[in-house]
């Protein structure tokens, strides 16, 4: 979006209580954006809200992106602030692992309920939330950022459900980018980061060699500043282009 033309600069960020979602919300808040942030865990979200509110207006709504009423509350909150110019669909689940019973079950053994949860959280939730916010985004020439993964394009054992869901989100993002000329739709692979979700994929292993989420935030800020065409990008590529 053109920040000079949009004084309200309202952003909706899902999965904003920790990791990359929190880092992106923090960066936007510091730059004067008003925020609607959401995550599933009330206590973590409240802590994030307290920090972000030091920089400006923040509406924090705990809940799941698969819940119809919760998505409607998010859209209503953004409208109350003046209308969303940016939607960051960051919330995701690794493999519905709470239901699967193990972080990375093979597809042959992946429980049906866990598969459904993975696609509901990683694909259906972001798409329906985007539908609800599209009128606001169109009116402001806004943007949608959908968080992808290299697992969407590479075949990794154990990552079948997550990778397939991210591949589906990539395709939906590509189609939406063609269908919605008034906005930008970017699917972004942030790379391998040191996050709780990534640690859960490798329980007991040392992942301290992975970069922290804050290291890729400039890539996302660069998207907002340069507004390239809708499409799929990697944080590494965006950072290299910005050098």
Name its key features:
alpha/beta; globular; single chain; 9 helices; 7-stranded parallel β-sheet; 15% strand; Rossmann fold; 243 residues
Strand line-up of the largest beta sheet:
3-2-1-4-5-6-7
CATH homologous superfamily annotation: NAD(P)-binding Rossmann-like Domain
- Secondary-structure element pattern, one letter each: EHEHEHEHHEHEHHEH
Residue share in helix = 40-55%
Using DSSP, what is the number of strands? 7
- What CATH architecture label applies? 3-Layer(aba) Sandwich
Mean pLDDT: 90
Q: How many domains? A: 1
User: Tell me, what is the CATH class?
Assistant: Alpha Beta
Principal-axes shape call: globular
The major β-sheet equals: 7 strands, parallel
Structural class: alpha/beta
Radius of gyration: 17 Å
What is the fold-level CATH name, i.e. the topology?
Rossmann fold
> What is the number of helices?
9
Poorly predicted ranges? 1-6
For this structure, the quaternary state is single chain
Which percent band covers the strand fraction? 15-25%
